[in-house]
Design goal:
alpha+beta, 4-stranded antiparallel β-sheet, Immunoglobulin-like, single chain
Length: 281
């Protein structure tokens, strides 16, 4: 399916600074960037980077003092996905995982899976297979954590979200990841552009590694899973921040949107009570 994505960010730059930006859509065998345009106003020096730990596409921008500095990104992207029945899926064998996948089994800054081991196993460990476990915990988060804007901050972790039972998409994703890892299921943070999000913005969810594939899960249930355009993955939000700022810079505003460019789209909203899941091929 083809989508057009747009991002606009505005800053006030007080002194010579650098921003490492992470808003470019991934370009790989699962998601093709057909065309894209990246500009700044005023025009400044920038260069493309690729993260060492993932395929994330970064942009390093050097900015002199500017009262009004804006960044604009636009792309047409074709994503390829598959909806499958995972009723009889077999569980992974840890010994056969690659080093890159093993990374997503460990606790991380915002996903303290070691502190949620007992909770995760008592509540979901009895399920028939890994897909059933992840589906159950995702549905549990949806039912028990209130989506509440402004209820958390940049320091909020998965453990905090369990305690407070409120958060935004970032917090829902961190809790899903932590519970998966506590169940010995690799999981990673996913950030992207989202079609049909009621308040257009960057959106976060998570992927779990099941039977050799990364499957997409969204405990907020705010958007169709087949309407996601991936920007980045990582251990948690620290690895996939939209912007990392080095210098004296004031954030002003940001906008992100995703528009469908085709007419035969049938939205897939997983209810996490059945056996169907979605993976990007």
């Amino acid at each position: 399916m083809k989508f057009e994505v747009n991002a606009k960010l505005k800053y006030q730059v007080i002194s010579d600074s650098t921003i490492i930006l992470n808003i470019h859509a991934l370009n790989n065998e699962h998601q093709k960037v057909m065309e894209e345009r990246f500009t700044t106003n005023p025009s400044v020096k920038f260069k493309a980077l690729k993260s060492l730990s993932a395929e994330n596409r970064l942009m390093s921008i050097e900015i002199p003092p500017q009262e009004n500095f804006s960044i604009n990104y636009q792309a047409v992207v074709d994503n390829v996905f598959e909806i499958k029945d995972y009723t009889e899926v077999s569980d992974l064998v840890i010994a056969k995982l690659s080093p890159e996948t093993l990374t997503y089994l460990h606790p991380s800054r915002y996903c303290q899976s070691d502190r949620l081991y007992r909770l995760a196993n008592n509540m979901f460990g009895y399920k028939a297979n890994d897909f059933a476990k992840v589906s159950a915990l995702t549905h549990w988060i949806y039912l028990n954590v209130e989506y509440l804007s402004g209820s958390t901050n940049a320091q909020t972790s998965a453990y905090d979200t369990v305690t407070e039972q409120a958060g935004v998409c970032r917090d829902f994703a961190h809790l899903g990841i932590a519970l998966c890892r506590a169940l010995t299921i690799p999981a990673r943070y996913f950030t992207g552009y989202s079609y049909l999000l009621s308040n257009p913005d960057f959106h976060a969810c998570f992927e779990a590694y099941i039977n050799g594939s990364w499957l997409l899960f969204d405990a907020t249930k705010l958007v169709p899973l087949n309407g996601m355009i991936k920007i980045a993955t990582g251990r948690d939000a620290a690895d996939a921040a939209v912007a990392s700022i080095f210098g004296d810079v004031n954030f002003v505003s940001s906008e992100a949107s995703c528009q469908l460019l085709e007419t035969d789209f049938e939205p897939f909203y997983a209810d996490y009570l059945g056996a169907n899941g979605i993976s990007y091929l």
